[in-house]
Amino acid sequence: MTLKNHYLLISFGILALIGGFAPLFAESYFISLCTLVLIYAIFAMSIDILAGYAGRTSLCHGAIFGSAAYMAMYYVTIFGGSPAWAFVFGILMAIAISLIFGVLAVRASGVYFLLLTLALGMIVWGICQRWTSVTGGENGLRGNIRPEWLADPNHFYYFVLCIFILAAFMMWRFVSSPFGLGLKGIRESESRMRSLGYNTTLHLIMAFVVSGIGAGLAGILYAFFNSFISPSSVSLTQSVKGLLMVIVGGVGTLFGSFVGAGVLIALENLVSSFTQRWSFVMGLTFVVTMILLPSGIVGRLLATKRS
Amino acid sequence: MSFFLFQLINSLTFAALLFLVASGFTLIFGLMRIVNLAHGALYLLGGYIAYAAIHLTGNFFLGIVCAVAILAIFGIFEQYLLKFARGVDLRQVLITLGLAVMINDLCLVIFGGETLSIPVPELFKNSLEVFDFTYPKYRLFVLFVGASVFVFLTLLMDKTKLGALIRAGVDDRETIEALGVDISRIFLITFMIGMALVAIAGALGGAFLSLYPTADSEILVFSLAIVIIGGRGSLLGAAVGSIVVSMLSTFGQVWFPELSYFVIFGPMALLLAFRPNGLFGRPI
């Protein structure tokens, strides 16, 4: 146990060092990649809360991510509000959407849950695509919504890093709290938890909303980062990407989502420098991972250490 | 009145097309407990194959045959791939999801991002005129195909041994396995039936809805909605669901053009609240 803790501490330390001092030595391209990894890590961790701890694999988190991003973008560029309030409204949007989705979807589990969340997420995508007067349709929304003090990429990187650490800590506290243990119980046997007196539906809805807040937070940061949002950021591909990060890293290990985000973003950039067929490679990675490494990188490492 | 009638027949023909996609989808879901998320992408692929074959041979029906043959072979391949994750439904579904992403990108590489339309065969080019009401023959042909497939599948399921085995598999997979039935062969046959149907749908849909890169997601959402409304593994459910979804979408497009997608959401949500297994589905 102590050995494992040592490894964890050392790897966290190295990561923190790299993360903290990256802007001092790296070029700006690398910094923007790191920023993207952190944003997607928040996104993937939020999916892992449901997939890993509640046993509910969701395919609608791309939609929550995207609608929060749209909200933030719309509020600043079209409504003319301030970026700080855009943050608040983006989060409120994520809460609202995930509350609706949660209420509709949590009664199902397994494949049915996947299917429901997929359909729900697609509806958001359809709205973004067709409701041109608000969302700009295919053209999306464009505009630099970062406030003055975050204009510098390095400052923005540190800002995202702080939020990432905060979010990661809170999500870790969340899953290791009694509430999180309750979620694990529901994952193992919902009927037993119910007979123990837990209101499993309410429990799952709350977990869904917490997870949605994470996805929304990532979405808002993405809107700040990218200055552009289009229906493709809301699409199924986005959810698939997030889920793939979780699976590659290891379902049920929050840290794995971070690793998965790093691996996938690195892979995306590597592949994109050779060919335009990133989404083909992503699909292939998905199939190969599901067949060869279903427990993910971190999951596999933990399993070998235990045995 | 004539406008309303026109839209009504429009939605019925669209329902026939949706039924072709959703019937295979729901049978696979019912029997194998997995959703084939590649179904939308395969619809698009089937359409594109038919488009290419029709361009080469000039014969509409030969194009459909080509699409059916190639997708049926793909069905064998996909079934083989799914065996790697046998017993873990979620992993199997995620494999089909990965395949969907791959097929979609492949279609984009080969056929480009432009909208392609399959030419309607000479036989059905003009319109049918009854009194003062005219309607394109081709769409009536699609309606006819959908209805015949419904009759054919119903007979297959109710009157043949294969149908009995599939129904038994939907109800209780473990028991018929224990009775000595080779379930993986039935999986394969069901899968190939589903593939053949989705290929036909792609070819027929390519002529009246046209083929474009996001068509796969639209068809997939419609099929999901149909299965959620109709219930897992039920042909009648798929038929009723197709009609409900296509009516909602057709009239939604007329009345709320920007939110037409949203309109199928309402009944779906209601059904989920009161009948989580759909109209004709049984609990898993």
Question: Would you write up a description of this structure?
Answer:
The complex is a heterodimer of chains A (307) and B (284). Chain A has helices spanning 2-25, 28-53, 61-77, 83-105, 110-130, 132-135, 153-176, 178-188, 190-195, 200-226, 236-249, 254-274, 278-292, 296-306, and strands spanning 141-142, 228-229. With 307 residues, chain A is mainly alpha-helical. Chain A has a two-stranded antiparallel ribbon with strand order 1-2. Chain A is globular. The two termini of chain A are 13 Å apart. Chain B is mainly α and 284 residues long. Chain B has twelve helices and two strands; from the N terminus they run ααααββαααααααα. Chain B has a two-stranded antiparallel sheet with strand order 1-2. In chain B, 51% of the residues are buried. Classes of the chains: A mainly alpha (307), B mainly alpha (284). Chains A and B meet through α5, α11 and α13 of A and α4, α9, α11 and α12 of B.
CATH class of chain B: Mainly Alpha
Tell me what the CATH architecture of chain B is: Orthogonal Bundle
Number of helices of chain B: 12
Largest sheet of chain A: 2 strands, antiparallel
Oligomerization state? heterodimer
- Secondary-structure element series of chain B: HHHHEEHHHHHHHH
Summarize the helix and strand pattern of chain A as letters. Answer: HHHHHHEHHHHEHHHH
For the secondary structure, the number of strands of chain B is: 2
Q: Radius of gyration of chain A in whole Å, from Cα?
A: 19 Å
Strand-residue proportion of chain B: under 5%
Structural class category of chain A = mainly alpha
CATH topology of chain B: ABC transporter involved in vitamin B12 uptake, BtuC
Radius of gyration of chain B: 19 Å
Low-confidence stretches of chain A: none
Helix content of chain B: over 70%
List the keywords.
heterodimer, A: mainly alpha, 2 strands, 79% helix, 1% strand, globular, B: 284 residues, mainly alpha, ABC transporter involved in vitamin B12 uptake, BtuC, two-stranded antiparallel sheet, 3% strand
